[in-house]
Design brief:
Domain Beta-lactamase hydrolase-like protein phosphatase-like: 2-110
Strand content: 5-15%
Order of helices and strands: EEHEHEHEHHH
CATH architecture: Alpha-Beta Complex
Pfam families: BLH_phosphatase
Number of strands: 5
Structural class: alpha/beta
Distance between the termini: 33 Å
Number of domains: 1
CATH superfamily: Protein tyrosine phosphatase superfamily
Shape: globular
CATH topology: Protein-Tyrosine Phosphatase, Chain A
Strand order of the largest sheet: 1-2-5-3-4
Protein name: TIGR01244 family phosphatase
GO molecular function: hydrolase activity
Largest sheet: 5 strands, mixed
Radius of gyration: 14 Å
Helix content: 25-40%
Number of helices: 6
Length: 138
């Protein structure tokens, strides 16, 4: 598992397994957001299994499946609500961490500078420059 802390209160990661959840909790995260649609992954990593494992550890679990290239306004609203409503640091995952970075940036449009919304994920290899016009017009 590779925790990539975009901010002190929000991290992204490539796909995790139930076995990773104790380390996520030990790292101080209290909410886990699954940005991966079940159709992309093996059944042992589906939302139902991940939710049960996370909740058994006392972690809040939010399913917000984001389809690559087809992020919806609902995805952004759900991500923003999960981040804003969390009682502590948030950990989000998808296939590579990119979609979790994109919905974070969109959820923070107008709250942080466009340069930060693009530059912070870039430190981890996520290129969000293509989002600049959307972020600037938020």
């Amino acid at each position: 598992m590779d925790i990539r802390a975009l901010t002190p209160t929000y991290a992204v990661s490539p796909q995790i397994s139930p076995a990773d959840l104790p380390a996520i909790k030990a790292a101080g995260y209290v909410t886990v957001i699954d940005n991966r649609p079940d159709a992309e992954i093996p059944s042992d990593l589906h939302t139902t299994e991940m939710r049960a494992a996370a909740e058994a550890l006392g972690l809040q679990f939010i399913a917000n499946p984001v389809i690559g290239g087809a992020i919806t306004e609902e995805n952004v609203i759900t991500q923003r609500a999960a981040i804003d409503g969390a009682s502590g640091p948030v950990f989000a995952y998808c296939a590579s961490g990119n979609r979790s970075s994109v919905v974070w940036a969109l959820a923070h449009a107008g709250r942080l500078s466009t340069d930060d919304l693009i530059g912070i994920p870039a430190r981890f290899g996520y290129s969000l420059e293509w989002l600049r016009p959307t972020l600037e017009n938020a």
